[in-house]
Design brief:
heterodimer; A: 285 residues; mainly alpha; 76% helix; B: 288 residues; alpha/beta; Rossmann fold; 2 domains; 4-stranded antiparallel sheet; 9 helices; 10 strands; ATP-binding (chain B); ATP hydrolysis activity (chain B)
Chain lengths: 285, 288
């Protein structure tokens, strides 16, 4: 009360030391190392089991030969074209899905009546397994890129749209009010507060959609005869059913897995790089 | 919205509101920074309706620093939101700088209670401060000068590149004040600005408000639940009753300037005033 503690005129709060970065990066490196140890261990186990003659090497060739095959396959022009086809379908599919899902998600997240109106249609369509659409789309569009795209887009739209919707809906009304109090227009509030605030959610949606999209591309290629891509390559090689083609099937599968891993790591890096401010991205990295 | 004459109910003449006033001009004393004219607000309707404020009338002259106190839940924030144009009152009107509020008034900046939510975590300190002027017609160097000066005024020079979540609570609220200053407001509204910081930080921030009040030509209205603070910072204290809130008393605070955390709080006039305000609040608006 009257006897107050001496109050310096300068800021009473001293500068905080820079955030400790080191322990986190060390912990991260340790986690990566442990993860790598697991992978190396599994590879060694596969190698030993295969070479010991416990199983038929036709079904389980040594991992080293699978890996070697995966590398030498790149010399095969057909395989390269197939990988390119899968990648292009994936990239186009993701771009189209984002172009549709993000604006729709923003609108549905901002305007409750729009959400209520769209909900029935969305809930009806969402449970349809994308792959179940293959025969129908094949009938209409044939086995080309368009067919694959339609199905990939259908699969990738939902996670992006729902994450955008929740992200937009989750924007702190307080922050919006702050912007409004400075005379920022309705559209300005969307552009300067709502979208940046929802962005980490959207990117998480894109990451989820991305792994689904890759799975769906390859599945569609596998089941739709005549298509191009890694899945089609696997499907063709399997038909020969000899040791060499078996190796090729495994090598193509490993390639697909690595592709998914690289894409996932890339998006994870983007999330940490650009959305480090977001608590979920900070804590969950 | 039409600028018709505010609802001056017959038989209850407002002080200063001349009945012959031409349409579209503010009631009350000419040149008043803020005129609150017969403002009432009710949330919802029917059984769940909450009558938050009832028939409030007061004026604030330019460069005044007015605190609004009252029992908790007394509609202080409702009143402030009405002044900020974020809420249209159910009845009556607010006039800021001679213009009737139909939305957010020009030249008004607000400092919110919860700094952790009002600052944007994806923007650095300097970009948070530049937020209100980012879309303005000012040139880049002009904007930078405003940001630098505002950060200097709140004692945060050198923290431009930090992010809000890297700063302590008191520093975050300083950033929010700097953001309001960068807007160069004529009217600054503060909604319990220091309710979420510790006591020592609070004293520093109170003195910061006194220093910016002297440095910039601003009218300041702030809501607080801290009785000492309401007297320490203000030229006038408006005491509200329990809801539906009415104006219990409009108290002039004439304490020696410059004010000081130790000597002002020892001043018998200060002690007397804080006691008076406390009694008013504890009685919930009944006469004492």
């Amino acid at each position: 009360m009257a006897i107050a503690t001496p109050a310096p005129p300068a800021p009473t709060t001293g500068p905080t030391p820079p955030r400790a970065q080191k322990p986190r990066s060390t912990a991260r490196r340790n986690a990566v190392l442990r993860g790598l140890a697991g992978v190396v261990g599994l590879i060694l186990l596969l190698e030993i089991v295969s070479r010991s003659g416990l199983v038929n090497t036709n079904f389980l060739p040594p991992f080293s030969s699978v890996l070697w095959k995966a590398i030498t396959l790149w010399g095969d022009e057909v395989f390269r074209a197939d990988v390119l086809s899968t990648l292009l379908t994936y990239v186009y599919g993701m771009l189209i899905a984002c172009a549709i899902a993000i604006p729709v998600g923003v609108v549905l997240g901002m305007f409750r009546p729009a959400y209520r109106g769209a909900r029935a249609i969305v809930e009806l369509m969402r449970p349809i397994p994308p792959v179940a659409l293959v025969p129908l789309v094949l009938l209409v569009l044939g086995a080309g890129l368009e067919m694959k795209l339609v199905i990939v887009v259908f699969a990738a739209i939902w996670p992006i749209m729902f994450n955008t919707l929740y992200g937009v809906h989750d924007v702190d009304p307080y922050a919006k009010e702050m912007a409004r109090s400075f005379g920022v227009s309705r559209f300005g509030v969307i552009r300067r507060v709502v979208i940046p605030s929802a962005a980490p959610f959207v990117v998480t949606g894109i990451r989820i959609a991305s792994s689904i999209a890759l799975i769906v591309v390859i599945t569609v290629e596998l089941i739709a005869g005549g298509a191009q891509g890694i899945g089609a390559f696997i499907s063709r090689e399997r038909a020969f059913s000899d040791a060499e083609s078996y190796l090729a099937v495994l090598a193509a599968t490993v390639t697909a897995g690595l592709l998914g891993l690289v894409i996932n790591l890339g998006i994870g890096w983007l999330e940490r790089r650009f959305f480090g401010w977001d608590a979920t991205a900070r804590g969950g990295a | 919205m039409t600028d018709s004459l505010p609802t001056t109910s017959a038989g209850a003449p407002t002080q200063g509101a001349a009945p012959t006033r031409p349409a579209g001009t503010a009631p009350g004393t000419p040149g008043a920074a803020v005129v609150v004219d017969h403002v009432s607000h009710t949330y919802g309707r029917g059984d769940t309706a909450h009558h938050a404020i009832h028939d409030l009338n007061f004026e604030v002259m330019p460069k005044e620093c007015v605190s609004i106190v009252g029992p908790s839940g007394a509609g202080k924030t409702t009143l402030l939101r009405t002044l900020a144009g974020l809420l249209q009152p159910s009845e009556g009107a607010v006039w800021v700088n001679g213009k009737k509020n139909t939305g957010v008034p020009d030249g008004m900046a607000m400092v919110f209670q919860d700094y952790s939510r009002s600052l944007l975590p994806w923007l650095s300190v300097e970009r948070n401060v530049a937020f209100p002027i980012a879309g303005s017609s000012l040139s880049k160097p002009e904007r930078k000068a405003l940001v630098d000066e505002s950060l200097e005024a709140v004692g945060l020079k050198g923290f431009e590149k930090r992010y809000p979540w890297q700063l302590s609570g008191g520093m975050q609220q300083r950033v929010a004040i700097a953001r309001a200053l960068a807007y160069r407001p004529k009217l600054m509204l503060m909604d319990e600005p220091f309710a979420s910081v510790d006591a020592q930080t609070r004293e520093g921030l109170e003195d910061l408000v006194l220093s910016i009040r002297d440095r910039y030509d601003m009218t300041i209205l702030f809501v607080t639940h801290d009785i000492d603070e309401s007297v320490y910072l203000a030229n006038r204290v408006l005491v509200l009753s329990r809801p539906p809130a009415t104006l219990v008393e409009d108290i002039r605070v004439e304490l020696a300037e410059p004010r000081d955390q130790i000597t002002t709080r020892e001043d018998p006039a200060f002690i007397h005033l804080r006691g008076h305000v406390a009694r008013l609040i504890h009685s919930g608006g009944e006469p004492v």
